[in-house]
Structure formats: C-alpha cells, structure tokens
Amino acid sequence: MALMFGFKKKSSKIELLAPSDGAVIDLSDTSDPVFSTGAMGIGFGLEPTDGSIYAPVAGKVTLIAETKHAIGFETSDGLQVLIHLGIDTVELKGRAFQLDVSQGQRVQAHTKLGTMNLRQIKAAGYKTTILTVITNSGELDLDFDLTTGETQSGRSVAQVTKK
C-alpha cells in the first residue's frame, strides 16, 4: 500500500492515550506559550493527579531529554509525538524525574515510562502540566478530536485521522 504523509492511503486513525491520571485540557488552556499557541504542534494538556507516566502511543522512543522532562516517539504511521513533563521543568536538571525507558526502545501504548515527583516540582515553583503534542502535525493534514475532563492513564483522550 502506498504511503502518503507517512499514513497508509486507507483512512488511518490513531488514538492518543492519557499519559497519567488527571484532567485533560485543551492545549490553548496551558500556560506555556510555545505549546498553547500550537507552535510545537496540535495536542493536549493534562493536569496530573498521579506521578506515574505512560506512553500515549505505541512506537519507537526517539528522544529522551538529558533533563528527563521530555520524551519523543514515532509511531508506525509516521506521527511524531512528544510528551513534555511540566512547565519550565527543564530548570530542575532531571531532579524529580525517574525514567525507565531508553532512546531507541520500542514501546506499546500505555507502557510505563517512569515517574515525575509532583510534590517536588510544585515545591520548586513549577507547574506539573503534562503536554502531549504531535510535533509534525504542521506537515500533515489531520483531524484532531479531543475529549477533555477527568481521565485515567491509558484511556483514549484524542483521535487523530488523516483528512
């Protein structure tokens, strides 16, 4: 089957799962302007109530920030997905994060990636919002359907379909 924009020609639908327990919010309602304006791509925010972090998609881990606050994935359909743990948490230089995956590793959706210490992040004056974005969405013609509100890790909260 021929590939078009990384998707099989036939309609391809991908679900993005909640990376943690908490409340899903529109990306525009997050407090990081780089993400809230959509500059990094389409996606959503999640205000976590638990520090356990799970993969929002199945794919290959393509990036782990040295400071452990960001993890990138590429799906078999060519979506490049980034989860960013907290707002401005790069300043913590890895403190408050414990990751159990490595770059190059293949993961299934809802694989446990590690933990973030919500208390420690808040005590340092940072927000714990988890941002999940499709960083190559500007190159793709996608429909994005988000369900906001309380959720649990592993639940589908967004559907992405090639137009």
UniProtKB/TrEMBL annotation:
Gene3D superfamilies: Glucose Permease (Domain IIA). Residues 32-136 form the PTS EIIA type-1 domain. It comes from Ligilactobacillus acidipiscis. It is a multi-pass membrane protein. GO terms for cellular component: cytoplasm; plasma membrane. It comes from the Bacteria. Pfam families: PTS_EIIA_1. GO terms for molecular function: kinase activity. Keywords: Kinase, Phosphotransferase system, Sugar transport, Transferase, Transport. Coiled coil: none annotated. It is found in: Cell membrane; Cytoplasm. This is Trehalose PTS II ABC. GO terms for biological process: phosphoenolpyruvate-dependent sugar phosphotransferase system. PROSITE patterns: PTS_EIIA_TYPE_1 (PS51093), PTS_EIIA_TYPE_1_HIS (PS00371).
